[in-house]
């Protein structure tokens, strides 16, 4: 009986000593080091495994997948990123231009206007597929990972700078050009039929 009481006290003391040790070790601050540091995983043995956020922040790896960003000057509105997205978080609406509207930084000719280019980061699963398929490399992942918002709708980022009025004007110009081409084609066919 005495042996059982002694064993119970020693077992309880081992558990309490572990708790007390962690209680006092928890007051130390964690040193911020990168994952490539050889001491990175040994830090968990000495001190807390949390950091004092936002006063301390973990370094962001170069290959991290975080916030998406689009350089609209380089975008040719090819829609590949939206097609490859497994969760449909990219919403693109394009308008055909009546002529070439410029060039990207790599020399690709732009022939489409981006009436709408929205990315819903609440849906995004950070797979990076959209950055891989982009032919002009205009869609990239930045190193920003803290995008805390109060409304879920604030996570929809709009990259197109075209107003609805401009979009309507560009559509009207394209429709007018198409109507003129169709009229010219019909006139040429009538003239060909009349001369034959």
Automatic annotation (TrEMBL):
Keyword Lipoprotein: no
This protein's UniProt keywords: 4Fe-4S, Iron, Iron-sulfur, Metal-binding, Repeat
InterPro entries recorded: 4Fe4S_Fe-S-bd (IPR017896), 4Fe4S_Fe_S_CS (IPR017900), NADH_quinone_OxRdtase_chainI (IPR010226)
SUPFAM superfamilies in alphabetical order: 4Fe-4S ferredoxins
Boundaries of every 4Fe-4S ferredoxin-type domain copy: 64-95, 115-144
Single GO molecular function: oxidoreductase activity, acting on NAD(P)H
GO CC field: membrane
Keyword Disulfide bond in annotation: no
Protein name: NADH-quinone oxidoreductase subunit I
Provenance organism: Mucilaginibacter gossypiicola
């Amino acid at each position: 009986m005495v042996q059982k009481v002694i064993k119970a006290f020693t077992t309880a003391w081992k558990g309490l000593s572990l708790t007390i040790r962690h209680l006092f070790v928890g007051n130390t601050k964690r040193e911020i080091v990168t994952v490539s540091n050889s001491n990175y995983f040994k830090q968990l043995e000495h001190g807390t495994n949390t950091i004092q956020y936002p006063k301390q922040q973990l370094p962001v790896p170069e290959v991290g997948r975080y916030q998406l960003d689009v350089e609209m000057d380089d975008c040719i509105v090819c829609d590949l990123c939206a097609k490859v997205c497994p969760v449909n978080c990219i919403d693109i609406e394009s308008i055909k231009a009546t002529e070439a509207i410029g060039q990207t930084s790599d020399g690709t000719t732009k022939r489409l206007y981006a009436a709408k280019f929205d990315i819903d980061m609440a849906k995004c699963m950070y797979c990076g597929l959209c950055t891989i398929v982009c032919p002009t490399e205009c869609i990239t992942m930045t190193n920003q990972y803290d995008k805390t918002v109060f409304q879920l709708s604030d996570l929809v980022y709009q990259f197109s700078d075209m107003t609805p009025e401009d979009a309507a004007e560009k559509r009207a110009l394209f429709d007018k050009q198409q109507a003129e081409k169709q009229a010219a084609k019909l006139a040429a066919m009538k003239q060909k039929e009349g001369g034959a």
